[in-house]
Design a protein that fits this description.
By secondary structure, the chain is α+β, with helices and mostly antiparallel strands. The chain contains 9 helices and 18 strands. Strands 7-6-13-9-10-11 form a 6-stranded mixed sheet, covered by helices on one side. The protein has a 5-stranded mixed sheet with strand order 15-14-18-16-17, sandwiched between helices.
């Protein structure tokens, strides 16, 4: 008890902060300090120098002794080491032990833009995985590309990550609008921090219309491998019994904006007599019904139907 009385409340708090920094919550330590953040600097053996101040627009922290020191772009742990080294080299303190904490970040939200169900800004106080952030935005749209770009708030760095074609297992399944189907990120441990911006591009599409199980559009997200005619027919639930695959057509848009109508020997391809062929973005496969009037459907009508087709995710 006598030992405890010799310590002031300030020193007890300093010890607590110091031990907290040593133990550390690594997710917190990964957040970078930025302009406008409210930062608290605690000196373990020099409590009179403790201070709280905001980081300037230039990224500097105004020390009580020694002027400004740049800490923007550093983690709190790195900033503490830099301040300690400065105080020691400037002979203000001998072997200083410094703890830096961020009391509040200037930006407390992450922006999610592009091919998500609910684009917008979402409040987060600490780092979250990309999967959690996408869940906050309601998950990916059916035509979302596998590419996800994260722009860091402090450094402006652009980081690109890729999705795999596997079921989504969302950690934050209680978030509003969470979808239980979709894609999951290959790099699950990648973090998104307050102030970052997440962008999801729309994927390029190919279409299959006519007498198939699921006529509609499908994003080209087949793990970077070319999507082929037979793969697309399979994704569309195969041709129906009433279909006329011998009369199938491939409608392809040319660089000049005109359409090319290509006969597609789908029946022979399905039997292995003709080689499968890769598709290009915007291609339309039309599998007619056995009725002659559908087999003779015009290119313009087919292209218009593709524009209003249902988009599927796989």
């Amino acid at each position: 008890m006598r030992l405890l009385k010799t310590f002031s409340l300030a020193k007890i708090m300093a010890i607590f902060l110091f031990l907290s920094a040593v133990i550390g919550v690594r997710a917190e330590e990964s957040l970078l300090i930025g302009p406008g953040d409210l930062v608290h600097v605690t000196y373990f053996d020099a409590g009179e120098l403790n201070q709280q101040s905001r980081v300037t627009d230039a990224g500097d922290f105004p020390l009580l002794m020694g002027g400004n020191i740049r800490i923007a772009g550093l983690t709190p742990e790195q900033a503490a080491a830099k301040i300690a080294a400065f105080m020691s080299s400037s002979h203000y303190l001998v072997n200083p032990r410094v703890v830096v904490t961020v009391d509040s970040y200037a930006t407390q939200s992450v922006s999610v833009l592009g091919a998500v169900h609910l684009p917008g800004a979402y409040p987060i106080a600490t780092g979250k995985t990309i999967s959690e952030v996408l869940a906050l935005a309601g998950g990916l749209l059916p035509d979302a590309d596998r590419t996800v770009v994260v722009q860091r708030r402090v450094t402006g760095e652009l980081l690109t990550f890729y999705n795999a074609n596997s079921p989504l297992t969302t950690p934050d399944s209680s978030a509003p609008g969470v979808k239980r189907t979709g894609t999951t990120l290959l790099t699950r441990e990648v973090m998104v921090y307050p102030g970052d911006t997440v962008r999801v591009a729309h994927a390029e599409l190919v279409y299959v219309l006519g007498d198939v199980g699921r006529p509609g559009g499908f994003p080209i997200v087949n793990n970077d491998a070319p999507l082929t005619v037979l793969q697309l027919i399979s994704l569309a639930g195969a041709t129906n019994k009433t279909a006329s695959p011998n009369s199938a057509r491939l409608i392809r848009k040319l660089p000049d904006g005109k359409f090319e109508d290509i006969h597609l020997p789908l029946s022979s391809m399905q039997k292995g007599k003709q080689a499968d062929r890769p598709l290009q973005a915007g291609d339309i496969i039309y599998v007619p019904f056995s009725y002659l009037k559908n087999a003779l459907l015009g290119i313009g009508n087919i292209a218009s139907a593709a524009g209003s087709a249902t988009i599927y995710r796989y």
